[in-house]
Amino acid sequence: MSSKSKSAKSQQKLPEVQAPAAAVSPAVLDFAQRDSAPFPKLTRDDEAAMRSIFRVLTPDGLPIVNDPKLENGTGVADDDALAMLRSMIRVRAVDERMLALQRQGRIGFYGAATGQEAATIAAGHALELRDWIHPALREGGMALHRGYPLWTYLSQIFGNADDTSTKGRQMPCHYGSRALGYVTLSSVMATQMPQAVGTAYAMAMLHEAPDRPVCLGAIGDGATSEGDFHVALTFAGVMRPKGLGLPLLLYVQNNQWAISTPVEKQTAAPSLAVKALGYGIAGCRVDGNDALAVLRVMRAAAARVRAGGEPILVEAVTYRVGAHSTSDDPSRYRDEGITKQWAALDPIDRLAKYLIHRDVLTDADVAKLRAEYDDEVRTTLAEVEKVPPPATATLFEDVYAEMPAHLARQLAEVEAALARV
Ligand SMILES: Cc1ncc(C[n+]2csc(CCOP(=O)(O)OP(=O)(O)O)c2C)c(N)n1
Ligand SMILES: [Mg+2]
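Above are the sequence and the magnesium ion SMILES. Below is the predicted complex in structure-token form.
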């Protein structure tokens, strides 16, 4: 560029452009301003519950439901709300740290539940320890909430010698614990549903109503398009062990995206819960960013199926604020301006504001909790990273009761090769 045109350009007066205020997306507005629907009846006749959304708190954490017949007016004890908040903050701390670690090349993969902590933790909190969970990718926090040690959780991500659940043979996030009734995650979408039907059937055969262990099968919105979802709902509708309903909770975290496919492309149905109707079982929708609402619905649903009632499909409406996984870049297929609007409906802030409103916590207490869990993750991580990989022999174990000669030979070859490097 010549110096003449340069100076002409610099003298040019640029028009003052006012950045337009980000328009609030109609979907976000509709979600944020929705009134709470009445508490769902959890029967197959309650069609309204399959379209409208039950919630207890406003997006600012103020109670919408204030029923003098209920504990605290909301139906949730402060201890329960606090226990959930703690786990939600802890999961956020783990997720944030794991995302950073993957970017630094220290772990290979991670799937965060950012923005979905209420949907995950409150559903887990509604269960008893003897209940079973068949989780999908966003439910790792349920395992932590049940007592899965952070050490083992992080070891599974590294696939090190302390990865007692998968012995370094699985991708990160595939935690599992027999003791905690937390079945190892299967990556294959929707497999959780028929498996959960089977586990619920077993619970019904082994235990008597009204006190049966319950099984929760969890999937995402995208998995509702898989054949397994429909297979499971068919069985859930017709299998009646001992003449009773299955102790089964089918739980769908509708985070509105299945990697790059939005939920509108997944189905033309007015909700995912309404799909239960076609199979003759109960369904309902709950605000998945409202821990109190999720807890109340899931507790009522668990009590009902425990006692012998019909199985229930619960759709928790939430939003995947982050990427699908560390292998994904959502800015390539969605408007991240809208994501920011969903992020403003953060479930952790909402529950924290409620507890501050109730004088259970102060702002400083919440900040302290965040710092405490951040610290726990950092210090545990520093030690877990020092744990060596699993022993070479574990590559060849657990298929046969006794290692056959050809595998023993291969193990010896691998060990000899490793000794040379
Ligand atoms: C049967 C099958 N098809 C495709 C995939 C690849 N895949 C992994 S996660 C995913 C999207 C899952 O979306 P959703 O069910 O909404 O759950 P979310 O990840 O949003 O929690 C896909 C397509 C898979 N794991 N299994
Ligand atoms: Mg999804």
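The radius of gyration is 24 Å.
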